[in-house]
Amino acid sequence: MPDDDRVPDPDKYGCPNCNGDGCNECRVAGSGLVFNLFVPVLAPRLLSPNGSRGEAHQAVSAAKVALRADTYHAALSAAPQAALPRFQRAVVSFCYRHSFKRPGDGLYRPDDPSNLGGDVLKGPMDALVDLEVLIDDDYEHVALVTLQIERVAELADEGIAIMVREAD
Fold first, then answer.
1. Residue 146's Cα: distance from chain center in Å?
2. Rounded to whole angstroms, what are the CA distances from 146 to 53, 61, 62, 117, 158?
3. Cβ-Cβ contacts under 8 Å for 92 (sequence gap 6 or more)
4. In this predicted model, what pLDDT tens digit does every residue of 74-124 receive, in sequence order?
5. Helix (H, G, I), strand (E, B) or coil at 115
6. Is there a contact between 92 and 148 (Cβ–Cβ < 8 Å)?
7. What are the boundaries of each domain within the chain?
8. What angle do CA 165, 98, 132 make, to 5 degrees?
9. CA distance linking residue 156 with residue 16, whole number of Å
């Protein structure tokens, strides 16, 4: 996999949540296999809890499918599917990176961190199952899911960083 400075490096930074100082994710995650992926797109505004009001269900569903496909293709551009790691039980960390800029492109750049939720994470999580990185996204196979929201200076740095690690 190519190095990408937009994806947290667990060897350099430790846990993406606490930098190794100790948090619930550190206690749940094992010290073994790690898979980093950067999806260089943001979710459409339709997937915002405020953005889907009055929108047709089909448009919201299509937006979820598109984000799932973007994640799937980003993973395959990093490595062939046969080379992707497989996790029996995992900790999945998402870092939603967006700028302060408002270019009017219809992408979701939340003003309030609490507005980013499950509709944004569901597509990428389903893509990890489609790719067989995760067996399933149920409680038996995913011990913990974390979300970090980070503001970046440039539109080119926007996207979703995903880290999958073995769980203990």
1. 9
2. 26, 23, 25, 11, 18
3. 125, 128, 134, 142, 144, 145, 146, 162, 163, 164
4. 999 988 999 999 999 999 999 999 987 777 777 777 777 776 777 888 999
5. helix
6. no
7. 10-167
8. 30
9. 21
